[in-house]
Specification:
Layout (H helix, E strand, L loop, with lengths): L11 H15 L4 E7 L5 H7 L9 E6 L10 H11 L2 H5 L13 H14 L5 E6 L6 H11 L7 E8 L3 H8 L5 E4 L6 H12 L5 H11 L3 H13 L9 H14 L1 H8 L1 H13 L5 H8 L3 H13 L16 H6 L4 H18 L3 H11 L5 H13 L3 H17 L5 H22 L4 H12 L5 H9 L10 H15 L6 H13 L6 H10 L4 H16 L3 H13 L13 H13 L3 H17 L3 H17 L3 H18 L2 H17 L3 H9 L9 H17 L3 H17 L10 H11 L3 H9 L23 H11 L4 H8 L3 H15 L7 H5 L2 H5 L1
Parallel strand pairs: 1-4, 1-5, 2-3, 3-4
């Protein structure tokens, strides 16, 4: 614990040394003392404490130097001697002429020495000079001259000097036996706490005291200014708000330490500004190049900042406190910042710095150059998974390309190539963070003027099942796939990938040619992607054999292929898992879905992880595992919101709502659907899922008429897209239950009769009646409705078939029964008419 000495804290050692010098003065012996230190460290306070230590009747001569008086000869000497000699010194001392360049003559120095001796004959003399460094040249020469000639005089000569002048004074005075050098130290934490307590007249919060100590770096003047500001703004000492204290601390630093730095060490001030604007981790070589002083001067400036308490010591240039950087930045204008960032970008590019480092300064400066740098920075950021930064770099690169305008005709091709390359790069990045933005980039790539092959190559890099969740996302792939399929010799890989995307949307552009190309090499990555999509399309249309065969091929992957075959892609796994789910093979589908999630996570493909959780949730729902289904749906919903995809968020909400209804939480399900994002231009299958979920909630609340309408709308949307497999969305059974709840038994039977044959499970034990063996179940359903008087269009609407399909069934029925019109149908069926009716 340090005890105070008057108003001085932490100055016991310096005070003791000064007392020893005063004792020497009382004994008639001289002392020359210099007090060195930074501004505000307390040099003047020590100087002002000396008169109170002096013996009685000591003559005290005082002077305070100032830069504004440094051009006036003998201004410091006049301050010292005029009070006691009445201006005689100024009159007796000859003023140097112009030919002497302001240097005092030896005669003048001797006169001043005699005057000092005459004053010290009868009593001790204490000469106290504050800020000697600002004294005029003749006075400085006098100070050095007289300090070396005090051997037999009772004179105490004390001067305060900045730390930078210590070496200069040492060289001038030499090894004087009576020379004393004092270096006041920064205040310790205990002294700081005592000073702050004293200023607030009460104990302060320890965190506030520690903050004051860190900001002031033990500098008493800075500490006094800071505490004064805190008291002026009524900061409570017991429970201060850090958000209130830090701006005050920044302002105090700006008006004290930083202002001093501007005056005393411009190089250090410039370096501090560079570190604040460019970042404390800026390479020293860059700072040296920016200041044009070199690394040696930069290192000296860095050491000065450490001494000032603005930077931490060590190889890394970290600010000593979080308030330092805001204080520096507050002194830098916006124009200066932009200029500094622009210069830093140019220096970094010239030095071959990492592209990301250069790109950050390009973005902040708004420079109109650096297209290649931004492209490289985007690749670097994407490589380490920083997709947010990668998107910023690539968007700026595209903006630069747009700003460059239309050049000469010979540059048009190059600009189009650059635009397409940057668009695809940005789309690949957005695939990890914003799927709707990726859709926009895919549309831009599909509009490229570079031809179908180049467009297909670009879109193949963006192919992901997650993008076709929106119609807008599917259109570019379908359009370019059609263009590619029309070519005489389309590239195999691109055609397979784009055909896979088209199949997931229900389009069959290039299907036959893609199937032939995939059969040639069935185990590479494009073929497996195509195979998964083909399996899902086959399962949706009720071709269960094809669906299972293709899905099993994708699931087998390289295990059933030759050496060097590609592993199953995430796109292939999505299609295969959906196909197996819709054909009833839930066990293998679950394995594939888990494999999809693990593969996608390893590839940082959150979109495929999202799809994997949706499929897992569907599998759990079909197994009756509502809790697990809800967990998967909630995970999928979080990922959908993170990826900014409203369509897949709608699918996740629908899945969660179904699970909540099974768990008896109908109210929560209704609330979740009420906040459901709009399906918008979502894939018809997702819209059907949403309608099913709303119908499920309506039925659980007893609103069966509303539920029936929602279920029938669901089936209508599926039928329009050719999704005839009832296992895709089990709306028929739910509609039948709602019909039964309404008492409409015949309607319930009609809905169930309209369902195509179930895909999986053992064969039904009930054998068809002998009378029905001639016609297939589908034909019997059509015939029954026709006998009841329904037209072909009405039959198509009731069975959710196309009118063309109904007419095809009728043609087969007529041929099998040997009739030619629907009027003969009732008679040809005989007793079966009553059963059908």
């Amino acid at each position: 614990m340090h005890s105070p000495n008057g108003d001085l804290y932490h100055r016991e050692r310096e005070t003791a040394l000064l007392r020893e010098a005063v004792d020497e003065l009382a004994l008639g012996r001289p002392t020359v003392a210099t007090v060195h230190g930074t501004r505000g460290i307390g040099k003047s306070a020590l100087l002002n404490s000396i008169p109170g230590m002096l013996p009685p009747h000591t003559l005290v001569l005082r002077a305070r130097c100032h830069p504004s008086e440094s051009q006036f000869p003998y201004s410091m000497v006049s301050q010292l001697f005029d009070p006691v000699l009445g201006g005689a010194v100024g009159g007796d001392v000859p003023v140097p002429g112009p030919e002497q360049e302001g240097r005092p003559t030896h005669e003048a120095l001797l006169t001043l020495l005699r005057a000092t001796r005459s004053l010290a004959v009868d009593r001790p003399v204490a000469i106290l000079v504050d800020d000697l460094i600002y004294a005029d040249e003749p006075s400085l020469r006098w100070f050095s001259y007289i300090a070396r000639r005090l051997d037999d005089l009772p004179v105490l000569l004390v001067a305060t000097l900045p730390a930078s002048a210590a070496a200069q004074v040492t060289d001038e005075l030499g090894p004087l036996p009576y020379l004393l050098r004092l270096w006041p130290e920064p205040l310790c934490e205990t002294c700081t706490t005592e000073l702050v307590d004293r200023a607030f007249d009460s104990p302060v919060d320890q965190e506030l005291a520690a903050l004051c100590h860190t900001l002031a770096h033990g500098n008493p003047l800075v500490l006094h200014d800071l505490v004064t500001r805190l008291r002026r703004t009524h900061v409570p000492p017991g429970a201060p708000d850090p958000d209130q204290v830090l701006p005050i601390g920044s302002q105090a630093l700006s008006e004290t330490v930083l202002a001093w730095l501007d005056e005393d060490d411009p190089a250090a001030s410039e370096l501090l500004t560079q570190l604040a604007v460019l970042g404390p981790d800026t390479d020293p070589a860059v700072c040296g190049a920016l200041s044009q002083r070199g690394e040696v001067h930069e290192q000296q400036a860095r050491e000065a900042l450490v001494r000032a308490g603005l930077l931490e010591a060590g190889p890394a240039a970290r600010f000593a406190h979080c308030a330092v950087r805001p204080a520096v930045l507050a002194r830098v204008s916006a124009h200066e910042r932009l200029e500094l960032h622009g210069r830093a970008a140019a220096v970094l590019a010239r030095l071959g710095a990492p592209a990301r480092q250069t790109a950050e300064h390009l973005l902040k400066a708004g420079c109109g150059w650096g297209l290649d740098v931004l492209r490289g920075a985007g690749a670097q950021a994407a490589g380490v998974g920083d997709h947010e930064s990668a998107a910023r770099y690539l968007r700026r690169a595209l903006a630069l390309l747009d700003e460059s305008g239309d050049g000469a005709d010979e540059d048009a091709q190059e600009r189009a190539e650059s635009f397409l390359d940057l668009t695809v790069r940005l789309g690949a990045v957005e695939l990890h963070r914003d799927l709707d933005a990726c859709v926009r980039q895919a549309s831009a790539a599909a509009d490229s003027p570079l031809g179908p092959v180049r467009r297909a190559e670009a879109l193949a890099r963006l192919a992901s099942p997650a993008l076709v969740a929106r119609i807008e996302g599917a259109q570019p792939f379908v359009r370019v796939c059609g263009e590619l399929a029309a070519l005489a010799a389309p590239p195999r890989e691109h055609l397979l990938r784009l055909t896979a995307q088209s199949l997931l949307t229900g389009h069959r552009s290039g299907l036959r040619r893609a199937a032939r190309l995939a059969a040639g090499v069935p185990w590479d990555t494009p073929a497996l992607s195509f195979g998964g999509a083909l399996a899902a399309a086959a399962a949706a249309s009720g071709r269960f054999g094809t669906a299972r065969r293709m899905a099993q091929r994708v699931a087998a992957g390289p295990a059933g292929a030759a050496d060097g075959a590609a592993p199953a892609t995430t796109a292939g796994l999505v299609g295969a898992a959906l196909a197996l789910t819709w054909t009833g093979d839930l066990g293998v589908a679950a394995v594939l879905a888990d494999r999809l999630i693990s593969t996608a996570r390893a590839a940082d493909d959150l979109a495929s992880v999202l799809l994997g959780h949706l499929i897992c949730g569907e599998i759990h729902h079909r197994r009756g595992e509502a809790t697990a289904a809800l967990a998967d749906a909630e995970t999928a919903l979080r990922l959908a919101r993170r990826l900014g995809t409203s369509a897949l968020a709608c699918a996740a909400v629908s899945s969660a709502a179904r699970a909540l209804v099974v768990l008896g939480k109908v109210g929560e399900a209704a609330a979740l659907l009420a906040d459901e994002p709009s399906a918008g231009d979502a894939h018809p299958f997702i819209k059907a899922l949403s309608l099913q979920a709303h119908g499920t909630v309506a039925a659980a609340r007893g609103r069966h008429a509303e539920a029936v309408g929602l279920f029938l709308d669901c089936g209508h949307r599926l039928a329009l897209r050719g999704i005839t497999n009832p296992a895709c969305v089990t709306w028929r059974a739910q509609a039948a239950q709602s019909y039964l709840a309404l008492g409409e038994v015949s309607a319930a039977e009609t809905i169930l009769d309209g369902a195509p044959q179930e895909p999986a499970g053992p064969a039904r034990s009930t054998a068809p009646a002998p009378e029905r063996t001639l016609l297939s179940p589908a034909e019997l359903r059509v015939a029954g409705l026709v006998v009841r008087g329904c037209s072909s269009l009405e039959v198509a609407e009731k069975l959710f078939l196309s009118k063309r399909t109904v007419d095809t069934h009728l043609g087969r029925i007529y041929r099998k029964l040997g009739i030619h019109s629907r009027h003969e149908l009732a008679g040809a069926l005989g007793e079966e008419v009553e059963v059908l009716v």
